[in-house]
Amino acid sequence: MIKNSRIISTPIGEMLAVTNGRALIYLDFIDDILEIENSDHFILLKLEKELRDYFSKKLQTFTIPLSLTGTEFQKGVWNTLLKIPYGSTISYAKEAKLSGNPKASRAVANANGKNPISILIPCHRVISSDGSIGGYSGGGVWRKEFLLSLERAEK
Description:
Elements: E1 5-10, E2 13-19, E3 24-29, H1 42-55, H2 72-81, E4 90-91, H3 92-98, H4 105-113, E5 126-127, H5 141-152
Parallel strand pairs: 4-5
Antiparallel strand pairs: 1-2, 2-3
Helix pairs in contact: 3-4
């Protein structure tokens, strides 16, 4: 059983959230039913409220503390994602340039695919250079399209 975890319902599916007690360490969509005991840890309860407010278009900036586990390259890419404004998109090429690796578009896209904290680390805001949606390891392109549409509606 995963300790300090909670399943959070959203309009686009169930998400599993996990905290280490000090920060959020994992948030992603789950399509399989998991048997867990939902923790009432304050970080998870605050996350649930912030996600509800995000999907209700009442919140654009999350305040949940994050703890990232990955390579230095991955963490750099994920920190670049945190700088993409709500309702905006950038290309993988631009993300690579912003993260200090202008020739590493594929490596940057691969790091995006390993993002352990969906929505809060907004890899859904990265699209292909030709304007197409691109991929989304956070549970399918349809979820990425939903999130982009939700954020654009605010502008």
